[in-house]
Write a structure and sequence with these properties.
The structure is a single chain. This protein has one domain (11-314): Metal-dependent hydrolases (TIM Barrel, Alpha-Beta Barrel), CATH 3.20.20.140. Helices cover 44% and strands 13% of the residues. The protein has helices at 21-29, 46-56, 75-95, 111-124, 147-155, 177-195, 198-201, 216-227, 237-242, 256-260, 280-292, 298-312, 317-321, and strands spanning 11-17, 58-64, 100-104, 129-133, 135-136, 139-140, 159-163, 206-209, 245-247, 269-270. The chain is globular, with a radius of gyration of 18 Å. One of its GO terms (biological process) is secondary metabolic process. Its EC number is 4.1.1.52. One of its GO terms (molecular function) is hydrolase activity.
Length: 323
């Protein structure tokens, strides 16, 4: 493929981030100038994002705040920051409604603040969904403390992007957490959700699991086996995993995508760039690999690029179909 060719066609990117000035300032003040061991907070502005989108064939991006989120130890400060970044994200959507969507942030681990911001995000801002980190203060999302939040997300049939964050234990050997810790955090969080019965109790929530399911395809059978020793009755682990959605942000090829298709079907896959934490050139290269892989047939490619996303985000259906 020619280097400057557009690899995708009308893709809807469900895993992309934005960094507002208020968020950058708060992160730096809280000591997160190198978030999760990465070299720096990446630059972001809407014009640069649109240029990457046009070069890569991305019709629309769902914008979310990446790890470490918006809570840096003070509940009131986290409430203010969540409100600020969500309002700024909604303003970006208002300026370019067919190119951007918003997955709003919540100031967890502050449950009352999270519920208040969830209502503001949906009822005032018209957010397209919510982003949740894999854990807050070490409590993964199957913990009972999240039940009121999950109940409201279910009532609203919300789309929830499950995004990894660093574990509470120190990073190993000085590696950036996204290399190894993020995939295992995602796997822990999904196991927590499934083994605690969250998908069964709250079936209307549409969870999107990041990074092609992380290590789930390798560990699903092990989780299934151990599920018989946990709780009062066995859990249908395979059924629960097959009912989730998965973005393919990151390095899904050549190995992870075929393995993921042993857990779920192609109509549960979604495109994700992870921009700007994944730089422009890498976004383009990974998109080219996805667009040309023979792991998916032509209909499955179309489902991954936009058709499945338009079911989750019908507001953006004209974005994907027009390109």
């Amino acid at each position: 493929m020619v280097e400057n060719a557009v690899p995708l066609t009308g893709a809807i990117d469900v895993h992309a981030h934005y960094v507002t000035p208020s968020l950058r300032t708060a992160m730096e003040a809280a000591g997160h100038g190198r978030p999760d061991g990465m070299p720096s907070i990446p630059d972001w502005d809407p014009d640069a994002a649109l240029a990457v989108m046009d070069r890569t064939g991305i019709a629309a991006m769902l914008l979310s705040v990446s790890s470490p989120g918006v809570h840096f130890g003070d509940d009131e400060a986290a409430r203010r920051l969540a409100r600020s970044v969500n309002d700024e994200g909604a303003a970006l959507v208002a300026q370019s409604p067919h190119r951007f969507g918003l997955l709003a942030s919540l100031p967890l681990p502050d449950p009352p603040g999270a519920l208040a911001e969830l209502r503001h995000a949906f009822d005032v801002l018209g957010a397209d969904g919510i982003t949740l980190l894999t854990h807050y203060e070490g409590r993964h999302l199957g913990h009972p403390c999240y039940e009121p939040l999950l109940a409201e997300l279910d009532e609203r049939a919300a789309v929830v992007l499950l995004h990894p964050t660093s574990p509470r234990c120190p990073e190993q050997a000085g590696f950036p957490a996204p290399m190894l810790e993020f995939p295992f955090e995602t796997t822990r969080a999904v196991a927590s959700l499934v083994l605690s019965g969250v998908p069964e109790r709250y079936p209307a929530i549409r969870f999107i699991v990041a990074h092609a399911g992380a290590a789930l395809s390798a560990l699903a059978d092990r989780v299934t086996a151990f599920s018989f020793t946990i709780g009062e009755r066995p859990v249908d682990v395979a059924g629960a995993l097959g009912g989730l959605y998965y973005d393919v942000a990151g390095f899904a090829l050549p190995r992870l995508l075929p393995a993921l298709l042993s857990l779920t079907t192609a109509d549960r896959l979604l495109y994700g760039s992870d921009y700007p934490f994944t730089p422009d050139g890498v976004v383009h290269g990974l998109a080219s690999a996805l667009a040309t892989t023979d792991v998916l047939n032509a209909d499955e490619h179309r489902a991954l690029q936009c058709r499945t996303a338009t079911r989750l985000f019908p507001r953006l259906s004209s974005s994907g179909s027009a390109r």
